[in-house]
Design a protein that fits this description.
Helix content: under 10%
Keywords: Signal
Radius of gyration: 20 Å
Number of domains: 1
Distance between the termini: 35 Å
Number of helices: 3
Structural class: mainly beta
Number of strands: 19
Largest sheet: 8 strands, mixed
Shape: globular
InterPro entries: Myxo_TraA_N (IPR030819)
Length: about 350
């Protein structure tokens, strides 16, 4: 996005506001997950997309209002929304190349490469439509990923948030990046510590205002110093080069049982968060309920949320942690001739 163009400000103001923000606050999940580890692989998250008709100034602008404002936008009617299952790696883009490739992100050619090197397409692929997206489901966390920080990394243009829920419905703001004048493109990382293996409900909210659109969410399981800064601010680092890996649909589920939420693997339905985990249909069809991830899924009797031990091998969400070793500092610097590697003593990843 170009905030200057969207809001009629000067280029000078845009340049002055392209500064780093304070780092995110590390998160420790206090309670057990919503369900135990399923035996089947996941099929991806349910994504709802809705065109914004209230003008760019009505997009939530602050960390305190972004998540609640975006959810209110999705629950409001009558503006329709398009809902489907995102079954690819979590890399979305409008693939805009206007001489800049801000929409391409850090994982070039990793997801949906048959259609674009930039990633999987949003519902709205043009550069002028203002819209929001809301992704919901469960994230698989295996035994090897509990008890120590898992670092979530995001490349986003324009704004996003990631909320994780425990089995009691408590919310944890893992990542929050509201729109900022003059600094539309961001890299953000933050640490989340999970107490036990299982399925944790997650909600990802995204806002696109104009021009470049990108949303990449990845994870890293090793020692790391988290940061938050504009994508063009030095040192320019590439999350893929640092070892982050995109969230895989196999580790993203739509029901507590681990299966799809509807018989059609490409279809899903979101329900109001206030009804999540409550008895009754709560706006879903007969035979369905609003599950802990606020998705309509089939009613299943006798489901035990958390048995004493997991029912399958450790999650593929994160590979086994390698032995600790001292490393040299390695920073990816991107310039006109491509990426260079700079090394020095010490490392934030050691």
């Amino acid at each position: 996005m170009s905030c200057c163009r969207a809001l009629g400000l000067t280029v000078t103001l845009c340049l002055l506001t392209n500064v780093a923000s304070a780092a995110q606050t590390p998160v420790v999940i206090a309670r057990a997950p919503a369900a135990s580890l399923p035996s089947a692989d996941g099929t991806g998250l349910c994504i709802a997309t809705k065109k914004w008709t209230g003008g760019v100034n009505s997009v939530p602008q602050t960390a305190d209002s972004f998540a609640s404002g975006m959810n209110a936008f999705f629950e409001a009617s009558p503006q329709p929304q398009k809902t489907s299952v995102h079954r690819g790696l979590l890399d979305l883009s409008n693939a805009l190349n206007d001489g800049r490739v801000l929409s391409y992100g850090d994982f070039i050619g990793a997801a949906c490469s048959q259609s674009s090197q930039a990633g999987c397409p949003f519902v709205f692929g043009d550069s002028t439509t203002t819209f929001g997206a809301r992704l919901r489901g469960f994230m698989r966390v295996g035994q090897s990923s509990v008890g120590h920080p898992i670092h979530f990394g995001v490349y986003a243009d324009d704004a996003m948030s990631l909320t994780i829920f425990d089995g009691a419905g408590q919310t944890y703001a893992a990542l929050m990046r509201p729109p900022q004048l003059g600094a539309p493109t961001w890299r953000i990382t933050n640490a989340v510590t999970f107490p036990s293996p299982g399925l944790y409900p997650i909600e990802i909210l995204y806002a696109q205002i104009t021009e470049h659109a990108a949303l990449e969410i990845s994870t890293y399981d090793d020692t790391f110093t988290d940061f938050e800064r504009g994508a063009g601010q030095a040192p320019v680092v590439n999350l893929q080069s640092l070892g982050f890996g995109l969230l895989d649909p196999k580790d993203l589920h739509q029901s507590e049982e681990g299966g799809p939420s509807l018989p059609d693997l490409d279809s899903c339905q979101q329900c109001a968060r206030e009804f999540a985990g409550q008895p009754g249909t709560s706006g879903c069809s007969a035979g369905y309920h609003c599950n802990a991830a606020a998705l309509c899924s089939a009613c299943v009797s006798g489901v035990v949320p958390m048995p004493p031990s997991p029912t399958r091998a450790p999650s593929t969400l994160h590979p086994p942690r390698p032995p600790r070793r001292k490393r040299t500092t390695e920073v990816a610097v991107v310039g006109r001739r491509g990426e260079r590697r700079l090394r020095g003593p010490g490392s934030p990843l050691s």
